[in-house]
Amino acid sequence: MVDPIELNDALERLQAFLDGADLDGAVDYLRTLHPADSAELISELEPEQQAAVVDLLQAPELAEVFEQLDEEDMADVAQHLDVEMLADVLDEMEPDMAADLLGELEPAQAAEVLEQMEEPADVAALMTYAPDTAGGIMTAAPPSLRRFWTVTESVRFLRTHYAEEEDFFTLYVLDRHARLIGLVDLKALILAAPEQTIEEIMDRAVISVRATADQEEVAQLLQRYDLVSLPVVDNEDRLIGIVTIDDVVDVIEEEATEDIYHLAQMSPDSEIYSPILEAVRNRLPWLVVNLGTAFLAATVVTRFESTIAQAAVLAAFMPIVAGQGGNAGTQTMTIMVRSLALKEIEPRDTFWALWHEARVGIINGFTMGILVALIAGFWQHSPYLGLVLGLAMLSNFTIAAMAGVVVPMILKVARVDPALASGIFVTAFTDIFGFLVFLGLATYFLSFLN
Fold first, then answer.
1. In Å, how far are 7, 17, 39, 48, 244 from 42, measured between CA atoms?
2. Alpha helices, H only, 105-206
3. Closest CA to 70 of 106, 40, 37
């Protein structure tokens, strides 16, 4: 039994072995840990310490460690191994993980390692697919059943071909052309009569995905249908691999992180300790775009200089109108971006989404308008200022709701990630039109404000 550990304490203990030049002690300690914990600790070591530690680990042990690392960390640790040792490690790894590691290496180095592997075929086949597709994250197709086999024959087949499999829950059924025609779960196989054929007990309603499908779509299918594995087929419906639930856990985290970073107009590769120039390069371009939209809003304000000069109190309330509208727009935009990402809505649903959010915006705007009108009116002893502010709030909330729907939809149709650019443009709409409505109404009622 392996107990969970406190990583900071474990790292200190490992570092103590290394500081005392006790490499054998360090390696023996790592062997007592779960591979996920060992991987975490090794990734935290300095390069020279990593090299010393991995040099004492065997290929099967390194394979378990590598399978717990992300691609970049795998590539970093792999640099400490010679080609022959790395090939031995890859032979011990799951084909999909081995393919991920080779994809991080230089092409010449990856080709050299492949040549040294004993069983490179499955790994080489997986490397032909883009890394963010179903083909890129799948593992090789498992041994499959034939529909005319009996249950007895099938069980004998499983004992022969699945003896070394750690987990398998679903068995796939192929025709003579290797096309996927059904599936059988273990429960059905165990409960069936020995003389029954696979065709009698198999489920023909197989949910599958093309190898070129985006990895996010794969994750959504596994989630929607509560699957533990998803077969991957080619254009002729031949089974070429499977994606299991553990394959998409990292995908879900990666996609969620990417969307969060995009909402802040940042690169998905951004990290807290990334190089300064790289961090600037990832963030500065969108700040420049945002600056441009801010100047558009400032241009609107300059058109009402005389109004502000005659009623200076308006300047104090401008950030309220723009800020509240921006918050409302961000709420709608966030819901839209998430719904588009999960394919809960499509561009053809724009009207109904607009109709729904516009009503929400009007109700929220009316409520907030009354509240801010009362506060401003009593505070400044000016009911007309309260009226102007309340009407501006209602208008900007409605505009924010519409922009929060339309902007992501337009970006989706234009094949631009809605999470990446929606925030800037929605904020631009609420700032520009918020100032325009507020200052325009103030100009109309200026004689009463004075």
1. 11, 13, 5, 11, 26
2. 107-116, 121-126, 134-137, 151-161, 186-191, 198-201
3. 40
Tokens 């995009």, residue?
A: 262
For residue 286, give every residue at least 6 positions away whose Cβ sits within 8 Å of its Cβ, in sequence order, or none: 265, 266, 424
Strand pairing category for 239-244 and 229-233: antiparallel
Structure confidence at residue 381 (pLDDT): 86
Determine the Cα angle at 68 with ends 264 and 164, to 5°. Answer: 140
How far is 131 from 85, CA to CA, in rounded Å? 24
* Mean pLDDT, range 15-35, rounded to an integer: 88
What is the β-pairing status of strands 180-185 and 209-210? unpaired
Question: Do residues 411 and 417 make contact, with C-beta atoms less than 8 angstroms apart?
Answer: yes
| Residue 14 contacts residue 29 (beta carbons within 8 Å) | yes
Q: Residue 416 in contact with residue 277, Cβ under 8 Å?
A: no
Torsion of CA 82, 84, 85, 89, to 10 degrees: 130
d(CA 400, CA 11): 50
Q: How far apart are CA 183 and CA 166, in angstroms?
A: 19
Q: Of 209, 443, 127, whose CA–CA distance to 307 is shortest?
A: 443
Distance CA 402, CA 380 (A): 31
> What is the gyration radius of the CA atoms in the chain, in angstroms?
30
* pLDDT band, very low/low/confident/very high, at 436 (cuts 50, 70, 90): very high
Supply the pTM of this predicted model.
Answer: 0.58
Q: Check residue 370 and give its pLDDT.
A: 92
Rounded Cα distance, 54 and 67, in Å? 14
Out of 70-74, 235-239, 316-320, least confident range: 70-74
Confidence (pLDDT) at 119: 82
**Distance of CA 59 to CAs 20, 52, 64, 310, Å?**
26, 15, 9, 79
Question: Do the Cβ atoms of 166 and 122 come closer than 8 Å?
Answer: no
